[in-house]
Request: fold
Amino acid sequence: MAGEMRPRGAGAGARRGPGARAVGGGRFGGGPGRGRAPDGRGDDPTRVACAHFPDCVGCPLVGTTYGEQLRGKDAALLAELAAHPAIAPVAPERIFGSPLPFGYRNHAKLVLRRRRTREGRSEVVLGVYRPGTHSVLPAERCRVHDRRLLPFLVALRARIEESGIPIFDERNREGALRYVLARVSNESGAIHLTLVSALADPAGLDRLVDRLRRDEPRLEAAFLCVNPTPGNAILSPDVRRIFGPRALLDRFGRLVLESRPDAFVQANPGVATRIYADAERWLEPGPDDVVVDLYGGVGGFGLALAPRVSAVLGIESSAPAVDCANGNAKRAHLRHVRYLAAPAESAVSLVREQAPLPGPGGRLLVVANPPRSGLSAGVRDAIGELAPARLLYLSCHPATLARDLDALAGGGLALRRIRPFDMLPQTPHVEVLALLEREDAPHTEGTGERGAPAG
Ligand SMILES: C[S@@+](CC[C@H](N)C(=O)[O-])C[C@H]1O[C@@H](n2cnc3c(N)ncnc32)[C@H](O)[C@@H]1O
Reply:
């Protein structure tokens, strides 16, 4: 998922800019709010009371039944593809719904702000940006976060208030604490906290962290990210460990993936597990095949495919993510997997210099999972030059996916299967998996099977 360096609610989906239009914008049977009961609860079991309803805009579909959300996302993808004649003939398979429509998100990224209440008191808010503005809406009790994060976030806000550590004020650029990242492991329940501060050594930080450790025994590690820069980027490369292990372990089916505060990991483990499993089913890797995992992150795709192929070469621009990916391969005893810290644009020379050739009868298989902007022209050219037998493309932005599929079709890679996944329920975002094949390869049929609860 891209836009990951922005607080939830500050992303394109919430802002309803062109990104939101890509799926959903007004196509959910009347759009957000339709079918919403007056108190925001409704009689549908997949609707829940949200403490921030109706002020928070991070989940514009929260008043829509989950079944309607899924149908809206199916329809929106179909509409997006219809505008691209080269790919339109391949009908998308039905969406795979999230096993958890709420409580699915393994991390929270929230902004800290000090504001004045109606009664004139000053208070700390932990929340998301109101779309298109820099005003902050409270979201500490957000229901899409993993339930284990909720009490922690509520206590965290209170402890930060109590600590007296100055909250960053972007108007005069004074103060320290700016953002909070909290992650929970679906394997162990351990929580890792990152406090982002404009100052390198805010007074009272150690006391705050001690207090949090006493409150929450599951707090396994804390980090300080020093980010004095202007702009919306939450993290800077300056991430310092306060205590605890650097890596958090998550489980995605049979994969165990370590990640760090500054390394991307898929937000919804239930849905990501299914995507990694479908990668294996769709690509049908063989023992002599070689996989190139572009935009590989902490190695999810490469490690899912590794047991079935002769070698995996991963290419990922973030050095912390590459460290995690290689650590993940080592933990799984997969010696034929290697991730390199490099731009995907350099794939052709890296593959030629560093990837073993496929064995007799083996094929080159490429996976690409770029950020919202999709494949750069350089990466599209590189894929054309590598001429993989199959390309598996996971996208978090159907509009850039459709553009890229069009371009790749022109280069001889034909779309064979395409399926949406609901990685971020309650929001208009949709993740899409596409399988492409060299035109001269035999055709692969889709199953059209349906995913989890459609409501
Ligand atoms: C959507 S994430 C994909 C992560 C991974 N495939 C997974 O399943 O967890 C996109 C990744 O692309 C990386 N990235 C962004 N631009 C890149 C580029 N030009 N070359 C290589 N990696 C890039 C980001 O650091 C991020 O880890």
